Amino acid sequence: MIQLQQITKKFGTFEAVQNVTLTIENGEIHGLIGASGAGKSTLLRLMNLLEVPDFGAVIINGQQLTELNSAQLREARKSIGMIFQHFHLVANKTVFANVEIALSLANYPKQLRQARVLECLKFVGLEQFAQQYPAQLSGGQKQRVAIARALANEPAVLLCDEPTSALDTNTSAEILRVLQKVNETLGVTIVLVSHELEVVKSICHRATVLDAGQIYETVDLVPTGIKETDHHPQSFVNQLVKGGDGHA
Amino acid sequence: MPNVLIQYEAEIWRAVSETFFMVGVSIIAAVLIGLPIGTYLFLCGKGKLLENRIVYNILNLAVNTIRSFPFLLLVVFLIPFTRLIVGTAIGTVAATIPLSIIAIAHYARLVEQSLLDVPKGVIEAAVSMGASVKRIIFSFLYVEARSGLVLGLTTSIVSFISYSTIMGVVGGGGIGDFAIRYGYQQFKTDLMLYMILIMIILVQLIQLLGTTVARWLDKR
For residues B23 and A244, what is the distance between their CA atoms, to the nearest angstrom? Predict the structure, then answer.
């Protein structure tokens, strides 16, 4: 369970997050949505203390992160996965090494690392790309590597900062399917920041709408499901010319 | 081989070995001391992991001051310090001290600049994974900046070779000193030209090696 209690974060005189109290239940996919500058990414980054709140408490699975010293916080972060809009993979490491680094940071036994890395890559469908470098992958594949890296240490929580914003519609759908699979098969609690309403509606169980750094409303959702995507060029023609739904 | 080279072969080899010694020591100093200083400069910068304005300003001022010295004056200025460290201010070993000082400052700045090219997001991802500063440096920063670090070192080595040519003023010897003493002062222009040719070939080889290694390391 993620609990934010009266969180406030200022950048200079600008109050990016104001007195936010929010509880996200275990096993939930929770969307954070709002206009640009609403404070959704800042709120997400406050959950693993990439941004330190000026006031308030962050509690994840009973552990109050805001009370930990830096060594304890590093330990706590190893069980909180995070993925980013621009993937942030290490370009000079192979796909395999990018995932392995998460295990290495958590002192995962060396003899078990290879199997674990391949298991994570298989989960995201990239085991055959283990020896490639990020520059050789598409945007969607890079994001899947980032997800594999985030899952390596079996986190209880996965924080997703605009994970589909840099991707086209079809690739976004692929990533959302992977995130849904992470939630359903591994039971990982997911917090998903997006400015795209469709993304949040498709997989989130609940969503919090932010406005000017404050919670406007939290709503229960019935996920509408991820739209089937069609890679046929005719589908693009349909969308462009006829305004169709993309199905040829 | 031209007669003049055969005639001075032993002296030329000695001059080459002196240059290699002086430049070799300065490379070691640059890597062992310049690399950590450059890394610390980066880490103490504004908005960075170990942001510390006082430490940054002190290091920044020191690096800039050393780099702004005309090298000949730095050599003279450092004579008391050189004497303190190696017991003499004259000779090839003594010449390595000012050369190492400039090498450290020169490479530290290039290291800082290479690290500034590492995408901020990569460091952020490392922090989010619970990496310590030490792990961020060795597993993320140096890995991501490695081709820049190699190119920076290559540029530095070429500069060290250039700086080493004036170490004759403190009896440091080397190719440059040989070219001045035998080529210029004894009017053996052909010998001086051959020395210049050796320097050009040396620099070309180092640059070729550095560029090749950097390209091989760069997977971005």
Answer: 69
B-chain residues near A135 (CB < 8 A) = 219-220
Q: Give yes or no for a contact between A76 and A89, defined as CB atoms under 8 angstroms apart.
A: no
Could you write out the DSSP letters of every residue in B54-73?
Answer: HHHHHHHHHHHHHHHS-HHH
Q: How confident is the model at residue B102 (pLDDT cuts 50, 70, 90)?
A: very high
DSSP E strand stretches across A2-106 = 2-11, 14-24, 29-34, 55-60, 63-64, 80-83
Asked if A173 and A226 touch (Cβ cutoff 8 Å), the reply is yes
Q: Is the dihedral of CA A76, A78, A81, A82 positive or negative?
A: positive
Between positions 166 and 185 of A, the ones with CB within 8 A of B are none
pTM of the predicted structure, to 2 decimals: 0.89
Largest CA distance in chain A: 58
Determine, for residues B130 and A91 on separate chains, whether the beta-carbon distance falls below 8 Å. Answer: no
What's the CATH number of domain B3-217, 1.10.3720.10, 3.40.50.12780, 3.40.50.1100, 2.40.240.10? Answer: 1.10.3720.10
Q: Point out the residue among B125, B131, B147 whose CB comes nearest to the CB of A88.
A: B125
Q: Is the CB of residue A48 less than 8 Å away from at least one CB of chain B?
A: yes
- Provide the token pair at A14: 């600008």
**Per-residue pLDDT for B199 more than 50?**
yes
Share of chain B above pLDDT 90, in %: 83
For A90, the closest of B122, B128, B218 (CB atoms) is B122
